[in-house]
Amino acid sequence: MQNKCFLESVHNRLNETHRYWHSMLDGYQDVEIFRTNLNAAIQALRNVTFMLQSSKSKINNFDKIYEKYREIMKKDPVLVWLHDSRNTIVKKEDLMVKSQAVISLQTWLNFPLFVVDVSPLTKTEDVGLDFLKLSVLPKVLRDRTILNLERKWIDVKLPKWELLESLAYCFKHIKKIVDDIHSICNINIRTCKENLHKDINCMVVTKQDRSVDIDTEDLRIIKVRSKNLNLTKEMVEKVSNRYKDLLVNIPETNPIYHDPFEDLIFINNMAKRVLIKDRNHSCILFLYKKSGPPNILQIQPKKHTDKYVMIKGVAEEIIKNKYFGVVLISETWYLDLNKRGTDEISEEEIEEIVVSKHPKRREALTVSAISANKLKIAETKFRRTFFGKIVFGKTEIKEPPIEEFRILIPLREALLKVG
Hints:
The chain is built from twelve helices and eleven strands. It is of the alpha+beta class. The strands form two sheets. The protein has a seven-stranded antiparallel sheet, with helices on both faces. Strands 2-1-3-4 form a four-stranded antiparallel sheet. Strand 9 and strand 10 form a beta hairpin. Helix 1 runs antiparallel to helix 7 (163-184) and helix 10 (304-321) runs parallel beside helix 12. The longest helix has 24 residues, at 31-54. It is globular and about 80 Å long. 27% of the residues are buried.
């Protein structure tokens, strides 16, 4: 049962700070949205301590207890910044915020990065578009390269901290004071109906959150489109019922769902069933965690550049949620160079071949299992008959070097960081 707390106003200020923080995150690329919510978040969070002090008559030995926290806050440069920033905003002026942008041209292998100072009044996408108008890319790269512009907001008085990270740090420490006061008063904070923040792990900002990705061919902002698919018993039954009656010689295997490499064959067999039934297969990722079934993510890229941006986003999810393994299902193109004779093709020509646009390209269903130190691929080449029927070749199981599958490089790098 939840009860009304005597520190209701304290909870309300924390809740307001939380909402303002997420509004800053959502409006990271828009200076007015970011600045307005920055000012509001700083004031709301600083007001938490004022509200606590105004309630001290209801807390035994409050002055002695709070003095300990005051000494800690005085020695913490980030909490001192919060104190001083509130005074600046209320009594003087806006903070002296500074905006930087890290600009890079990216494919599966990145071009060198460089950092530029950007006017806080300039929208992020405008910076990127201006850059692209001044640059010249080879035609072969234009439809498979993105411009990534990673923005970073800092206060000149706290130059080593990104502003969302500094506010999340302050929120965590001040919430700890509120939690401790509740314990001292023998109040279970979980019973306070105003306490909306049992878990503040959502207050994390990633590189992708702070970035804009621009397609260098059509100059559009690439938006990540993905869909979580919960692996419930009902979902498994629904999928099994849809594809079980196919008259194809695909062996039945049972999923284990705790090891991507042991699950590879089962997932590959199910992917074949989907491809035969639906004539296409979405790009699906199984993200493995230490306990429970894997999270399943469906990404919906329209172009090669979309897929790159989405895979980068998945890589950040791996780090954030500490996934240890991934299985990726995707339809891929390949070019059988042996049909022409590789001796007839120079190394320079091979480098410039864009397989997805080559008139002799062929299709394959590729299921990849990857961890920090291992890569295993199930590749099934297939063709379509005149009436669209799928005819599979033999599935090949191989363990190639990661460089042969550049789409997987961001995932491998993320898994290495998780360890």
